[in-house]
Amino acid sequence: MRHNQYYAIIRKSDGSKRPLGIPTVRDRVVQQAVRQVIEPLFDRNFYQHSYGFRKGHSQHQALDVVKRARESGYVYVVDLDIQSYFDNIPHDLLMEKVKLKIAEGRILDLIEMWLKAGVMEDDQLHDTYQGSPQGGVISPLLANIYLNTFDWGMIKQGFPVVRYTDDIK
Predict the structure, then answer these.
(1) Residues 85 and 140: beta-carbon distance below 8 Å
(2) How far apart are the first and last CA of the chain?
(3) What is the pLDDT of residue 56?
(4) How deeply is 53 buried, as exposed, middle or buried, from its count of CB atoms within 10 A (0-12, 13-18, 19+)?
(5) Considering all CA atoms of the chain, what is the largest pairwise distance in Å, rounded to the nearest integer?
(6) Which of 21, 31, 58, 158 is paired with 112 by a 20 to 30 Å CA distance?
């Protein structure tokens, strides 16, 4: 079942490579169905100022929050981009977070299968042990699930956070 999702290696502007997930139509439909079922379970616990990849949330809203913070007296902004974030999400830690809300074994198996689909490079299929394939329907939700711990951890430490995708301000 691991060949239901195909990968291509694309070159980034800096010359590095990024695996791009290209799900088959069947996998795209199944990923969408799984996402629709599990997203509400996670979304209700996402930090309110996490704006990336969420229905009803936008980059404009994130910028509005930053502007309001400035108007209320904040003078510093730290702009952070997690380099190669999607490529480096540890599967085991991500699955631990998914299992906190999902107990259904078949759903967990599907998610793990999508994460471990492998990368095709130079006509060779290479196993993947980390990362969430960009291009998959489920990947943005998985990225938010993993970053939610960061969001709440920063808040707990007293740092206001506004996040859009893997960019944090």
Answers:
(1) no
(2) 40
(3) 92
(4) middle
(5) 56
(6) 58
Cβ partners under 8 Å of residue 36, min gap 6: none
Question: What digits encode the pLDDT tens for the residues 48-92?
Answer: 999 989 999 999 999 999 999 999 999 988 888 887 788 789 999
Other Cβ atoms less than 10 A from the Cβ of 137: the count is 19
Q: How many CA atoms lie within 13 A of 21 on its CB side?
A: 29
Which residues are CB-contacts of 86 (< 8 A; sequence separation ≥ 6)?
18, 131, 132, 133, 134, 139, 143, 166
In whole angstroms, give the CA distance from residue 165 to residue 147. 9
| DSSP-derived 3-state class of residue 81 | strand
Determine whether 108 is exposed, middle or buried from the number of CB atoms within 10 Å of its CB (0-12, 13-18, 19+).
middle
b/e map of 63-86 (b: 16 or more CB within 10 Å)?
A: eebbeebeeeeeeeeeeeeeeebb
161 is written with which tokens? 């956070």
Give the total residue count for the chain.
169
